[in-house]
Amino acid sequence: KQVFKPMRQKEIKVVKSVMSSPAITVKPNETIESASRILIENGINHLPVVDEQGRLVGIVTSWDIAKAVAVGKARTVEEIMTRKVITASPDDPIEIAARKMDANKISALPVVDAKGKVLGVVSSEDLSKLLAR
Amino acid sequence: KQVFKPMRQKEIKVVKSVMSSPAITVKPNETIESASRILIENGINHLPVVDEQGRLVGIVTSWDIAKAVAVGKARTVEEIMTRKVITASPDDPIEIAARKMDANKISALPVVDAKGKVLGVVSSEDLSKLLAR
Ligand SMILES: C[S@@+](CC[C@H](N)C(=O)[O-])C[C@H]1O[C@@H](n2cnc3c(N)ncnc32)[C@H](O)[C@@H]1O
Q1: Structural domain contains residue B54
Q2: How far is Cα B98 from Cα B130, in angstroms, rounded to an integer?
Q3: Distance (Å, rounded) from C-alpha A58 to C-alpha B67?
Q4: Closest CA to B15 of B102, B127, B117
Q5: pLDDT in tens, A70-112
Q6: N or C: which end of chain B has fewer CB within 10 A?
Q7: What residues of chain B have any CB closer than 8 angstroms to a CB in chain A?
Q8: pLDDT tens digits, chain B, 133 residues: what are they?
Q9: In terms of CA atoms, which chain B residue is nearest residue A37?
Q10: Ligand 1 binding pocket includes B108 (Cβ within 6 Å)
Q11: For residue B94, which residues of chain A lie inside 8 Å, CB to CB?
């Protein structure tokens, strides 16, 4: 009797298994002070910005807030957010997410579903902890 | 003639092979605006704080600047820096650095030599890019 043994293959880890969720988000018209408070209270660095319908319209990070401090003047999230957001899909392999971050010199990606709804955030911290022992 | 073949072993990657160096640092008496400018001009999130002798006395990050914005009032780096700094040694395996970050919920470690001199910074971004393909 012949037995077929499946080939050992590397397990594919996907974004949804390591992302932080639910996503903590902010609205474009909120103040920089209020966005800062949300970052601090949650111990995070990245806030997807969503419109009234919950669709992703930007991202604001503690780096953007430091930039506002360096440059002065800005008052609201929409004045400092990045509008062209690089995102991940929940079923992307983590290697793809790592490559997107590396190629774009960023440290997190909002994870969005097919309708653009924000499901979570995957960060370089979420990925680097996979290397921990 | 007998030939000894070394056992295949997993290559051990160490911190110094992935860290960013030289370290960009700041002095405790600099203003928060000036620290913010250094972060932005260099596209980084973490600044080791060193005294006149170049010894590590703290770390200030874009997260601490967002906190200063949220809370108000602070003016200088030493008012907002974290004084108990978790560091890495240049020859630490990267898995150890990843574990330190994960266990302390931080995203970077100043890399210091035996004399406490700051050689560089290793971040979760430096580590997560090892997973990229
Ligand atoms: C607790 S983390 C929370 C945000 C996020 N997890 C991160 O890593 O940036 C932010 C705080 O950690 C501190 N911190 C960052 N790296 C550190 C290190 N190597 N040793 C000690 N504190 C550090 C910062 O000064 C800041 O006050």
Answers
A1: yes
A2: 12
A3: 21
A4: B127
A5: 998 889 999 999 999 999 999 999 999 999 999 999 999 999 9
A6: N
A7: 32-33, 36-37, 39-40, 43, 45, 61-63, 65-72, 94-96, 98-99, 101-103, 105, 107, 123-125, 127-133
A8: 566 666 666 678 999 999 999 999 999 999 999 999 999 999 999 999 999 988 999 999 999 999 999 998 889 999 999 999 999 999 999 999 999 999 999 999 999 999 889 999 999 999 999 999 7
A9: B70
A10: yes
A11: 131
- Domain hosting residue A102, numbered range: 15-128
Ligand 1 center from residue A6 Cα (angstroms): 44
Total number of domains in chain B: 1
Contact across the interface for B128 and A62, Cβ inside 8 Å: no
What DSSP assignment string belongs to A93-106?
BHHHHHHHHHHHT-
In angstroms, what is the span from residue B59 Cα to ligand 1's centroid?
8
Residue labelled with tokens 């160096």: B21
Which domain CATH number covers A89?
Answer: 3.10.580.10
Is B86 inside any structural domain? yes
Residue B7 included in any domain? no
